[in-house]
Design goal:
Elements lengths: L25 H8 L8 H27 L7 H12 L4 E6 L6 E5 L2 H13 L3 H8 L3 E3 L6 H5 L1 H9 L4 E8 L4 E9 L7 H20 L21 H16 L3 H14 L4 H9 L9
Helix pairs in contact: 2-3, 2-8, 3-8, 4-7, 9-10, 9-11, 10-11
Length: about 290
């Protein structure tokens, strides 16, 4: 018998099985798995994220249901604006309907939010115009500095003067058509986190359903092409009436009449709706140059 090779060790000391099992058994695999904490398992993280999203959705749905309980159909848009302020880090919300001429402010959570919706309508510019045109959320997270100021300089100046430093505009509708926007106003700069954006989109989805459920009226407006607006925002009957009167006074088309109305409102720090009321009541007349 030849000499014993001490390097071989005693039976069971095979380094390949030092974890306590034969090669390829669960002993060695457990050693390798122990290096990765259970909490880092991507499958567990995914399930946790799904659970959190579902929990947020249920909570938001409960707040929405409570906010609109007992409301008449025409009251629901305003109620949903109030709900948005409860659910999100914003100080105001408004809903505007899209039209060929200018967005029509339908409801708002407060007078301040209503005024900012009117400012965008008067300027013919702002996040709501871009959201409606693109059919995608437009998140102006800082109206005090940076690209948002460069994109909407006049609106940014008027919004910050009113105490609003961020605006988030979400389209209402579906992939085929945008019927309006839900606009959210914040008094400090900052972006919406993913979970907040999901909640905002949930409110926008419910708002879309509420708007589509409202009764439709007959055609109105200077060109008779706005059936969606009839009976929903009666204040804007005065806007369309004023545009018609300006068309007659200046002998111009509807686009030019609206542009003149907006220009006069901006120059005098008024809203287009305020000037329209003056035109309809014959306190303001536009003269040809």
């Amino acid at each position: 018998m030849g000499p014993r090779d001490d390097r071989s060790g005693a039976p069971g000391d095979d380094p390949r099985t030092s974890a306590g099992g034969a090669p390829g058994t669960s002993g060695g695999d457990d050693t390798r798995r122990s290096r990765t904490p259970r909490g880092d398992d991507p499958r567990l993280s995914g399930r946790n994220s799904e659970h959190e999203r579902e929990r947020d959705r249920v909570r938001a749905t409960d707040v929405i249901a409570e906010g609109v309980r007992g409301a008449e159909p025409g009251e629901i848009p305003q109620r949903l604006c109030v709900v948005a302020v409860k659910l999100l880090p914003v100080v105001g919300a408004s809903v505007s309907l899209r039209s060929n001429g200018m967005p029509v402010r339908l409801s708002a959570s407060s007078e301040e939010a209503s005024r900012l919706a009117e400012v965008q309508a008067t300027l013919g510019d702002g996040p709501c115009f871009h959201a409606a045109r693109m059919g995608a959320p437009v998140l102006a997270s800082d109206l005090t500095d940076g690209p948002d100021v460069l994109r909407w300089p006049v609106f940014a100046q008027q919004a910050t003067a009113a105490g609003v430093q961020a605006v988030y505009s979400l389209p209402l509708g579906n992939d085929a058509v945008c019927v309006g926007t839900l606009d959210l106003y914040r008094d400090t700069p900052g972006a919406l986190h993913d979970r907040e954006l999901r909640t905002a989109q949930l409110v926008a989805g419910v708002m879309t359903v509420a708007l589509m459920a409202l009764p439709r009226g007959e055609d109105n407006g200077p060109d008779g092409d706005e059936p969606w607006l009839s009976g929903l925002a009666t204040d804007y009957d005065e806007v369309y009436q004023a545009i018609g009167m300006i068309m007659a006074q200046l002998r111009v088309g509807a686009d030019e009449a609206l542009a003149r109305l907006r220009a006069h409102a901006f120059a005098h720090n008024r809203t287009a709706l305020e000037v329209a009321r003056e035109v309809v009541s014959h306190r303001k007349k536009f003269d040809r140059d």
